[in-house]
Amino acid sequence: MNMLYQTKNNELKSGIMNSFEKEIDVLIDGYEEQLHTLEEERATKEKQVHNLSEELRSKQESIANLEEDSLQLNKKLELMEDFLYESSDNKLVEKYLNSYREYFYQDGINNMIEVIEGFMERKYYFQSAYFIDYLGEKSFITYNSLLNNPKF
Fold this sequence. Notes:
Blueprint: H1 2-86, H2 90-103, H3 105-121, H4 125-137, H5 143-147
Helix pairs in contact: 2-3, 3-4
């Protein structure tokens, strides 16, 4: 009887151990599946980070190129404006101002005022007076509004 009891006891222990092993295997499989899913998500996120980093780098290069282009255009504009200021041909300056105004109306009027200010800073009072008169004749701006400008 003792032997039978011991055999049953061993079978019971063995059954319990098998049951535990199966449960542990199920838990391990579940954790491995979760780990695999997390690794896939991590790989996806790393790809997204890489792609966004590349996009950011590309946009930063684009911004740097645009800034360089802007500097070049500003230098060209300064050279052109210097040429206009030094030109004794008021009709050439007038043509430039009219073309500018056609594209950018209000900004064009402000540009005309800047040109007048540029002539005044260079002490080219004849040209300044010519273009003040020109603005008044074309009714782009009134003399009073020019007088209200602190630079005049």
